[in-house]
Design goal:
The chain is an alpha/beta fold and 273 residues long. Helix content is 23%, strand content 22%. It has one domain: Metallo-beta-lactamase, Chain A (4-Layer Sandwich), CATH 3.60.15. The strands form two sheets. It has a seven-stranded mixed sheet with strand order 6-5-4-3-2-1-14, covered by helices on one side. A seven-stranded mixed sheet has the order 7-8-9-10-11-12-13, with helices on one face. Strand 5 (83-86), helix 4 and strand 6 form a beta-alpha-beta unit. Helix 1 (42-51) crosses helix 3 (73-80) and helix 6 (203-215) packs across helix 7. The longest helix has 15 residues, at 244-258.
Length: 273
């Protein structure tokens, strides 16, 4: 299985002729645009799919439905095909996009599916909690309760059910939250850990996150995502958001101590899992 990263938590997984995309976020609206209503940028989505060489997909998988994970999903399906797998909140987005039922599957914790050549299992997880004032606009709880069609305000993309997704031997977390002792039976080779917001948490929290998502699963490698400044477009030079580099240094210290390899995912780079 090969993985290609394209910023935020956008992950392309390839296995033979099968391809799935997790949490596609190509539109990447700038910070000031969040003051108004936002919507998928079809041209940027097309460009992002072209960068990945994607003209056909088996599926799009969502870890949760905040705008930087879910806003582009329906348009990606429109352009590249496939089935969208997500929560009941995600279903409200697909209804707003006019999807027929066969283009979408609601998934629940414990569900398993064969998506192309991939074996996929969904586990209940949590979203990281943000301090005020950001928590007022992006709460870790709450779902999209009615059909929604963009343009809408970014805070209307509530998280919904949050999942950790096991794809073959890769366990993907779309947020730096966790449920204690929930992933010990996953047995992945590698873990994708989205670190957005971790700089606001204590070292003790980071250690608990690492214990539950990495050590207890037995993973040998940690792939760091959601570290980049997603208010910049994919055409601009990549840079860390906030104090993400500080968090990465702490993760590398934990990896050195417990024996895992820590790799920061680089946009456009393809790696073998």
């Amino acid at each position: 299985m090969n993985l290609t990263y394209l910023g935020t938590n956008t992950l392309l997984l390839e296995k033979g002729a099968s391809r799935i995309l997790i949490d596609p976020h190509f539109s990447r609206p700038g910070f000031l645009k969040l003051l108004g209503k936002i919507e998928p940028d079809t041209a940027r989505i097309s460009s992002g799919l072209n960068v990945l060489g994607l003209n056909a997909l088996n599926g799009v998988l969502l870890t949760h439905t905040h705008y930087d994970h879910a806003m582009d999903a329906a348009e990606v399906i429109n352009q590249a095909g496939g089935i969208l797998y997500g929560s009941e909140s995600a279903a409200k987005l697909t209804k707003g996009a006019g999807f027929s039922r066969e283009k979408f599957r609601i998934v629940y914790p414990g569900d398993e599916a064969k998506v192309g050549a991939f074996n996929v299992t969904w586990f209940k997880s949590k979203h990281i909690s943000f301090p005020p004032p950001l928590s007022w606009f992006m709460p870790k709880n709450g779902g999209i309760n009615q059909t929604m069609s963009p343009p809408v305000h970014f805070w209307q993309y509530k998280s919904g059910e949050v999942y950790a997704i096991l794809v073959d031997n890769l366990l993907v977390f779309g947020s730096a939250g966790f449920i204690p002792k929930a992933y010990s039976e996953c047995d992945p080779k590698a873990v994708v850990l989205a670190i957005g917001g971790l700089e606001s948490k204590s070292s003790k929290y980071l250690e608990l996150l690492y214990e539950n998502t990495v050590i207890q699963t037995g993973a040998h490698q940690v792939l760091v995502s959601h570290w980049d400044n997603f208010f910049k477009t994919l055409d601009e030079p990549v840079q860390a958001i906030g104090f993400a580099n500080r968090t990465i240094c702490k993760l590398k210290q934990l990896g050195d101590h417990f024996g895992q390899r820590i790799k920061v995912l680089i946009p456009g780079e393809k790696i073998e899992i």
